[in-house]
Design goal:
The chain is of the alpha/beta class. The chain contains nine helices and 14 strands. 39% of the residues lie in helices and 21% in strands. A six-stranded parallel β-sheet has the order 2-1-3-4-5-13, with helices on one face. A six-stranded mixed β-sheet has the order 9-6-10-11-12-14, sandwiched between helices. Strands 7-8 form a two-stranded antiparallel sheet.
Length: 294
Amino acid sequence: MQSQNNCNIKNKKQKTDIRTKGRLAIIEWYTEQEELDDLYYYAIRMGTEKKAQELGYEIVNIFNNDSFEQLNTVDGIVAIGKFSTRDIKELETYGKKLVFVDCDTLSFGYSCVTTDFENSVIQVLDYFIDKGLTKIGMIAGEETASDKNTILSDPRLTTFKTYLKQLNLFDPRFVKIGSFSSDTGYTLMKELIKELGDDLPQAFFAANDALAAGALRALQEASISVPQQVSLISFNDTSLAKYMIPALSTVTVFTEEMGKQAIQILEQTFQQEKHSIPYMVKLSTKLTIRESSL
């Protein structure tokens, strides 16, 4: 009988141990399919989930076009991606603790986690210039906010233009803008090869790995060797970058840490009795040189 009582006590303790601290919603600005096509946001979500589960939270995943009804049952929200003013205001109506990732929301009164885009781009450009490559082009991306209507400016493109203009090295002919996809990267690079011919830049910066992958394919089809004739550096360092041939030099973004920081901010707000002052965590990046650049 004593043994049975001990067993019951042990079982009750185990049930207590596995009880979660609460429920958190992770809202992805992409649809589930769009996220599969962009490993950057997938990696951020994985980092967010991992940290939340380590702290004992139950996770609810909500993708673009999913109903927000489940938000009524959660204690806090991590919103990943570029959210429109309308969507931010809609999330406010649920009255939950709220943190954003990859979106500057300080002006709305919410803490956020972002990446240092500006210095990342300058580091890439300085690297090219130090190698004697002063004809520099860019394959840039353009995207809309979660409402699919608000066009967003890319700080990478802004920094690229501003910095090269200061050095008298900017040439608008060397820049193409499209969606953030490998097909777009391929199409834009083919256009540049056709339009510029022998005046093609010595180096290109691509705004993400997918654009770089498409651009690389176009260069290879045109028998333009990388990096001997054209150096190529990308941005994000998703899992595909190091498996390209040649392996992509790229700006490494610490996506898992972005998700981790978001959960830590949310955890802090739960522990504070009064309304906390919103703040931004801006993470540095690392230039990872591989085989696609001199």
